[in-house]
Every structure is written in C-alpha cells, then in structure tokens.
Amino acid sequence: DAALAVPDKQVDSVCPYCGVGCQLTYNIRDNKIVFVEGRDGPANRERLCVKGRYGFDYAHHPQRLTVPLIRRLDAPKSGEFSMDPARVLDVFREATWEEALDAAGGALARIRDTHGKRALAGFGSAKGSNEEAYLFQKLVRTGFGSNNVDHCTRLCHASSVAALLEGIGSGAVSNPVMDVTLAEVVIVIGANPTVNHPVAATWIKNAIRNGTRLVVCDPRRSDLARSAHRYLQFKPDTDVALLNAMMHTIVAEGLVDKDFIASRTIGYAELEQNVAGYSPELMAPICGVDADTIRYVARLYATSKASMILWGMGISQHIHGTDNARCLIALALMTGQIGRPGTGLHPLRGQNNVQGASDAGLIPMMFPDYQRVDNPQALAKFEQAWGMPLDSTPGLTVVEIMHAIPRGEIRGMYIMGENPAMSDPDANHARASLAALEHLVVQDIFLTETAYLADVILPASAFPEKTGSFTNTDRLVQIGRQAIDPPGQARQDLWIIQQMAQRLGLDWNYGHVSEVFDEMRRIMPSIGGITWDRLEREHAVTYPCTTEGDPGQPVVFTEQFPRESGRARFVPADIIPADERPDSAYPMVLITGRQLEHWHTGSMTRRTAVLDAIEPDPVALVHPLDLAALGGQPGDVITIASRRGEVALYARADDSSPRGAIFVPFCYYEAAINRLTNAALDPFGKIPEFKYCAIRVALGGAV
Ligand code: SF4
User: Fold this and answer.
1) Atom of ligand 1 nearest to the CA of 15
2) Per-residue b/e over 615-651, b at no fewer than 16 CB within 10 Å?
C-alpha cells in the first residue's frame, strides 16, 4: 500500500545480519518499519543485499515474545519443539517481570551458592551490541564468578582467531574488505561471499572489472568462481595439502620475500623444512588440483605487487581449522604480502557483531581486548576495574559446556540471543544437555528451539528497538540506533542484564548505553580514543584508535606485529584427516553452511515475509548425478542420516558441490541438520567440524 509506505520518521542504523556492516536507514511509520534504504557507509556505499533490504519485518512478527514466561511445573523438557501458541501455553505460563527475574536470578544464585561458581555458564550473542556483550561477560565473571562465558564465535572463526593471535598477535583482520580494490591478486578460500557477505562480494567483482585477478579455492563452486581468473576445486578436507604445496613452490622457486622474513618474522626455518615434503606433484592427487595449477597460483600470489587473502568457515570449521589458518598466515608472511594497502589477511566475520562481542570479552579465556584471564597483570587490572576477585582459570567453550552438563559440572545457564539447540553440532546431544540443566534462563525475541527448553524466558528487544555500537569485519565501530519501540512488555537487553545482575548480588546502575561504552573504552586500549560523541558524529570509527583524535588504522602491521618481539611467527602445519571419514555404512560427506536469504538458525529470516517466500522449505543441495544414482528427481524428499541422527528434506540438484558431498543450510528447524554434525573439536580453537562428517542418503521420508 503506497500510502502506508510514506514514512513519518527516518532513523540511521546498521544492518543486523552479516559482518560486512552495511549502514542503512530505517523508514518508519506508526512505529513500524515500512522500508529500508542503504546509506553511504564505509563498507557499503549505499549498497545492501536482499537480507539488509528486506529482512526487517521479523521485528513485527506476531510470534514475538511480549510477556515473561515461566515453565509450568508439570511440563517435561522433552518432545518436539512447537510454535503452536496453544502448545506454548501448555508448557509455559505468563508472569510479571518481577516474578520472572526473581525466579531466573534466584535459581542461578542458589546453584552458584550450593555447587560453586563454576556450576554456571552463560552464552552471550554476536547479534547484541558491544555494550550488551561487555555487560553479559562482566555479569558471568563477577556475578557467576567464573569464566564460563562464550558465544557463537566458537562455532565460526575461533580457529582463525587462535592462529592469528599465535602468529601475528591480533585476532582481527589486517585490511578492510574494500582493499580488494587495491589488490592485484585476491585469493578467496573456503568462503562464499556472494551468499554470506554479499556486499563484500560486489567489491570483489568491482575489483575484477578493474583488473584484479581473483583466485577462488573451494570444494564447492561458488558463484564467485564464475568470475575467477582461476578456480581450484580442491577435495574437501585437503586445505593443508593444497596450501603447503603452494608454499613449497614459493620456496623452491625463490619467490620468498627474504627481507620481510629477516626483519619481521621468526620461525621461518622450521616452516621451510616442513613444506619441503609437500611438493605439488605429491599433493596433487591428495587435494585434487593439478601440480601446474598449484604452481601457477603460488607464483601469481607471491609475485604480485599486492595480494590479499580472504577466508571463511570452509577454512575454520575443521578439526584442523587452526592449521588451515596457520598456512594462510605463513603464505602472507613468507611473501611479505601483509602490512600494506591491498594485501593482508581477512577472515570474513559472520555475524554483524561477532568481532565486537569477541573484543568485548565474550570468550572464556580472555578479558576484554584479548587480555588473558590467566595473565597475572591482566587479572589484577580487571580485579581493580571491577572491584572484586576474579577467576584466573579459563572457562569452558560452547561445546565443552554442552558436554559438561551431563557430567553434572554445569547445572545452570543464562543464554542471551543464542540458539544452541539449532546451532551446536550433534544437536540431539545439545538439546538433551539443555534439557538436563537444573535451571535454564533464555533471553530472546522469539520462542526459539532453545527457549522451548527454558525454565524462564525473558522477552527481549529486536535489533531496531535499541541503541548500541557494533563492530564489523573491518574493525569499524558503528552505531545501531533505536528506530521503533519493543512490543508489549518486551524490554531492552541492557535493562534485562542489569536486572539479572542485581539478582546475583551486583550493584549495577548504568543509565544510557554510552555509560557502558565509556567504561569499555577506559579498559580497552584498542578503542580508548573512540568517544560516544564521536561515534554519534562520525557514524563509524576504525580501531585500533588509542587516543582521542586518532583517525584509526584500517591497515595494521605496517611497522611491526603486536607480539612481544614485534615479529610475526611462522607455525608449520601437517595434514590431519577429518575426524569422521566416509566408510561403507556412511559413504558420503555432509557440508553445512548458510543460504543467501536465511540467517543462521532462521529465527529472524524465516519470520521475514520476502526472505521466507524466496526460500520457504528445507533443502539439500545434491549433485545431479548423485541424485540420479539415488533414483531421485529435484524436489523429491530425501533422508540424510549420520551416526548421530537423521533428517528429511527436499533435494535440489546442484552441481556446485563435488560428487559425494551434500550441502545443507542449518536454518531449518523442521530439518535441523546439526542433529547430524560431528562435535569433534579443533584442539586450539575448540571449533567443531561442521564442514565434514560421514552420512548416508536415501530417497523418501517425511518433511
Ligand atoms: Fe546486511 Fe551483510 Fe547484506 Fe550488508 S551484506 S546488507 S551487512 S547482510
């Protein structure tokens, strides 16, 4: 209705979905968002993808939680998840805020006082603001008393961050995405930006038009591969073989940057010795890329004036994810392709604030700004800042917490805006663990699959209903502004966290969100120079920004690396096979990921009219020849099973995957594919192996 589309208010904000961090304007009429436009932000220059442009009406969905809920005493924590409103009130009863908060905080405090501080854990959210992430981790560390706090970074780039911190002393990107326009050569490996970082993909395509040569390396042929100068379709799980073979070529052909290695790095001799055993001839049959192509791409990357690497979950979500990232770091260091515009390392961050939430300390081994909890100086600093003794033992990670619950080590949890019942590997096990908790508090905007297992549900605010800062994949800190009011009795998350803190014995009384940001910048040197006023004025400031007036540094490591010696470190890696290889019982491979139209576990985008209309049903992408071998047609229902569970969904013929590998998005609750995935962890990043497990497939089943 055109009349309805005339806004009575416009509010400048940022996109709530991916880490690109596009700036946008909400157009509001009568407290409803009617349409969204792109703004001239540093990351998007007015561009938006389909999610940013159309993915807003979830905020107005009739299934929004609007009243606090308490689980009925006789409602079992079992059975299938149901969104049927009649079923919901069979399981939960409505409560006042006072009653719900007393029940939520009281039960967690009792568990802490009876079973000790490490009997509790909290999951924060990469969808929340920096200030929410900061207060949430502070609540766990000071109110619960342990470091058992984590969030979905553990499921996406934890291994990349582990390798980056170890190798170059910083877990964030070295150069912004936009630097692809300054690069001669860009390698995109294990990432599908057209789907997962769509506006970033447009900058890559613009760069190609201006002469940049793109190399795409991925077992799945992404859309971007069609624009690539070279596409390397390596076999799933063989990243280290391919990357070590490239490094072997660079060493063998004398293409290393000797000056850079001598002046800026340590550990090169061990790396050189290690890659000596990985000749392209030996690795070609393993990774499935011919030796000449490996050599060609290695030369191209090493000899260009500026080469840049971007990567995604295809690199990180393996039990050897840290090794994969170590190889990418070594590639950049040995060729000196870092520390200048158009070069560097860019792990494409997934959620809109996964960078900021990690920076703010929403991880179990680090205080804000990656200051280790077991470092005595850091511990003393935060004990002084927060005015109480803190736990110096690193806490448990996401998957470790799910395994600690059945052992009785974790008895109560507070989950804000995450949905582990859908997003965790081996989701049947994760759901059983959540159901086994003595007390589970969930703070969310919808009755998610996780909230369905809660004892108390606290109705929270959606992204456009609150103000806060968000840090994108480029280290840009930007403001998301409140555009509409929360529905019913739903409250802003900062208020809810503070109410919970008070029930746990903390005397918190923050007013405006800027008061939280001010506290953060006092103890986080990386953002010390960013004031709230400046954010309001400039909309976006890049960190590191250590003093007021500092313009911020989009390109880092220009002179030295933030390690003790100032030098980066090479860490060699050898081939480690996937935890669960195909065999005669489970002969195929499952790869999980996202779709363009849907976001993560689907709680927002599946309640967005346009996006859900484009992709309404759970689908599996199957190679046409594999589908034909099953006797199936596109659109048929297939059942996929692993050793941990099975799901039925529709088959879509798709020749972008290699034969024998099936790709399934993890956003469909009717076919929750994480029931099948493997919870085996990378030993360094503690990230699960979402990108590889053994499955079998049969025609038929019921969706
Ligand atoms: Fe939002 Fe990412 Fe799309 Fe930009 S590219 S509009 S940040 S989902």
Assistant:
1) 1
2) beebbbbbbbebbeebebeeebbbbbbbebbbbbbbb
Cβ-Cβ contacts under 8 Å for 3 (sequence gap 6 or more): none
User: Cα of 27 to ligand 1 centre, how many Å?
Assistant: 17
Helix (H) or strand (E) holding 293: helix 291-303
Helix (H, G, I), strand (E, B) or coil at 120: strand
Per-residue HEC secondary structure of 648-692 comes to EEEEEECCCCCCCEEEEECCCHHHCHHHCCEEEECCCCCCEECCC
| Residue to mutate, 25, 26, 44, 58, ligand 1, most ligand atoms under 8 Å from C-beta | 44
Answer for the pair 169, 562: CB distance below 8 angstroms, yes or no: yes
Instruction: Collapse the DSSP code of 569 into the 3-class scheme (helix H, G, I; strand E, B; otherwise coil) and give the result.
Output: strand
Which H/E stretch holds residue 344?
strand 344-347
Q: How far is the CA of 179 from the centre of ligand 1 (A)?
A: 18
Q: Residue 487: is the preceding peptide bond cis (ω within 30°)? A: no
- The answer to whether 80 and 475 have CB atoms below 8 angstroms apart is no
Chain centroid to CA 82: how far? 27
Supply the residue whose CA is at minimum distance from atom 6 of ligand 1.
52
Tell how far the Cα of 282 is from the centroid of ligand 1, in angstroms.
Answer: 41
Q: Ligand 1 center to residue 611 CA distance, Å?
A: 14
Nearest atom (ligand 1) to Cα of 200 = 5
Rg (CA), the chain: 24
Interval 338-365 mean pLDDT: 96
- The three-class DSSP label of residue 370 is helix
Indicate which atom in ligand 1 lies nearest the CA of residue 18.
Answer: 2
Residue count of the chain: 703
| Structure token pair of residue 518 | 């001010």
The H helix count followed by the E strand count for the chain is: 24, 30
Q: What is the rounded CA–CA span in Å between residue 355 and residue 395?
A: 20
* Paired tokens of 600: 């993560």
Ligand 1: residues with CB < 6 A are 15, 17-18, 20-22, 44, 48-49, 51-52, 197-199
Distance in Å, CA 447 to ligand 1 centroid: 25
Give nearest CA residue, ligand 1 atom 4: 22
Separation of alpha carbons 347 and 314, rounded Å: 11
Other CB atoms within 10 Å distance of the CB of residue 489:
14
Residue 703: pLDDT band (50, 70, 90) is confident
Tokens of 702: 């019921």
617, 602 in Cβ contact below 8 A?
Answer: no
- Rounded to the nearest angstrom, the distance between the alpha carbon of 478 and the centre of ligand 1 is 14
pLDDT at 3 exceeding the cut of 60 = no
pLDDT above 90 for 448: yes
What ipTM does this complex have?
1.00
Is residue 239 a contact partner of residue 682, using CB atoms and an 8 Å limit? no
Instruction: Render pLDDT for 29-76 as a digit per residue (tens, 0 to 9).
Output: 999 999 999 999 999 999 999 999 999 999 999 999 999 999 999 888
Closest CA to 401 of 371, 374, 440: 440
Q: How many CB atoms lie within 10 A of CB 238?
A: 19
Tell me the CA–centroid distance for residue 16 and ligand 1, in Å: 8
From start to end of 15-163, where are the E strands? 23-29, 32-38, 69-71, 92-94, 120-123, 149-150
Q: Are 64 and 73 in contact (CB under 8 A)?
A: no
For the whole model, what pTM was predicted?
0.96
196 CA → ligand 1 middle, Å: 8
Q: What are phi and psi of 127, to 5 degrees?
A: -95, -20
Residue nearest to atom 3 of ligand 1 (CA): 49
* Coil, helix or strand at residue 324: helix
Helix runs in 28-157, H state only: 50-54, 85-91, 97-115, 130-139
